[in-house]
Amino acid sequence: MKKVLFIFALLTACIISNQPQLVYAYNFGDYRSVTLTTKAWEALTNNDIEAVLAYTNKCIELYGEQAKKMQSSLTDYATGDNKVIFSYWALNDVATCLFIQGEAYRKAKMMDEAKEVFQKLIDEYTYGQCWDPKGWFWKPAEAAQEKLAMIESGSDVDFGDYTSMTLTVKAWDALAKDDLEGVKTYTNKCIDLYGKKAKEMQDSMTEYAWESKDKIFSYWALNDVGTCYFILGESYRKAGKTDEAKEAYKKVIDDYFYAQCWDPQGWFWKPSEGAQQKLDEINGS
Which of 36, 53, 105, 198 qualifies as a FRET site for 283, CA 20 to 30 Å off? Predict the structure, then answer.
């Protein structure tokens, strides 16, 4: 742990003093904010904390002031088509970099540093938004607020990258451990973030997607939210909470009927059919 702290301190000192020894060891590409943010995400995924600090600090150094100007021009999150939101590129990328940096500190168990960075994001770059390649924006300041609450409570709940896939996988893991509270935490987060998108997908369909594997996966929000409701129903059923289980199963059938769930063995199954079968079992049909 002392070695990790020393590396963090040394890297930060080199960046602040503009000494090239460590900074120049990293390839900043074209120095654009989107490039630096992408590299920071990759470094976080690889648990390369030194690289996270190098890329995020470089992004904040180059674009922090522009991001603050964009922040000061807003009174709420930018809305409209994607071009409008993307026009706040500096704010979005600096806010995202601070979130990544906070996550790096949190993973390194440097909670005071993590809290400071998350709070800075919330206070100074509140209206930044981060684009998810699956087709939506999420809000780093809101995610940072959750991370702060998690640190303060000592909770070990970790939503990972907040994607619907990650949350669904974590819900399955919690179900396997008979952890009802864990299942509720992950499924509710997935439903909260992606329920609206899932409903839009459901309403656009008149039959199950079938053309190809990629076509089925293109309904990612519907698939994961429908699956999460099924997992929630299963968890309630296993816990003997029959009424709650029936309500969750019916939600799959009534609102997310065309959801499909990928089985790692190589096939898709239909949560609504599974939910109907479970309801029939409960009702003694």
Answer: 198
Which CATH number fits the domain 2-153, given the four candidates 2.60.40, 1.20.1050, 1.10.260, 1.25.40? 1.25.40
| Residue 229, CA distances (Å) to 17, 96, 176, 253, 272 in order | 52, 30, 15, 10, 10
Q: With residue 86 as reference, give the H or E element that holds it.
A: helix 82-86
237-265, pLDDT tens digit by residue? 999 999 999 999 999 999 999 999 999 88
Mapped onto helix, strand or coil, the DSSP state of residue 267 is strand
The domain limits of the chain are 2-153, 164-283
* CA distances for 250 relative to 98, 168, 222, 232, 234, angstroms: 41, 19, 15, 11, 12
Angle at 250 between CA 246 and CA 253, to 5 degrees: 145
> What local confidence, expressed as pLDDT, does residue 254 receive?
96
- 62 and 6 in contact (C-beta within 8 Å)? no
Residue type present at position 206: T
Q: Give yes or no for a contact between 104 and 52, defined as CB atoms under 8 angstroms apart.
A: yes
CA angle, residues 99, 193, 158, in degrees to nearest 5: 50
Listed in sequence order, the residues at least 6 apart from 189 whose beta carbon sits closer than 8 Å to its beta carbon are: 159, 162, 167
pLDDT < 50 regions, the chain: 1-24
Whether pTM exceeds 0.85? no
Question: Which of 21, 51, 23, 17 minimizes the C-alpha distance to 37?
Answer: 51
Q: Give which of 101, 94, 91, 87 is closest to 51, Cα–Cα.
A: 101
What pLDDT shows up at residue 158?
77
Residue recorded with tokens 């390839």: 27
Give the H or E element holding residue 126.
none
Q: Which of 161, 142, 163 is nearest to 221 (CA)?
A: 163
Residue 215 CA to chain centroid, in angstroms?
Answer: 23
